[in-house]
Write a structure and sequence with these properties.
Layout (H helix, E strand, L loop, with lengths): L21 E2 L1 H8 L3 H10 L6 E4 L2 E5 H10 L5 H17 L1
Length: 95
Amino acid sequence: MSTFHHAPQLHQAVILPGPERILRKKEVCQILGISKATIDRKVRSGDFPPPIQISVRAIGWRESEIEDYINSREPVSRFASTTRVHRVERQTKIR
C-alpha cells in the first residue's frame, strides 16, 4: 500500500495597492518629536490613532495613519511661542 503525500494547498494572497509601512513606536516618536508616554496618553484620550497588533509583544501604526494625523493638526508657529516666552521673561526681570 502506497501513501501519497499531497502538496499543501496554497491560498490566494490579498494584494494591497502598494506596500504600506508599519511604523514602530520609537519611529513614530522620532517623526512627531514626542515621547512614548505622550503617545500612550494621546491614544487613551482618543487624540491619536490606535496602534495595530503586529505580534504578541509588538505594536505599530500604519504610515498613512500617521501622515493623516500630521496633516490634521494645526501648524504651530515656534516663533510665536518663543516670542511669548521671551516677553514673559522680560516682564519678570523688569519688576
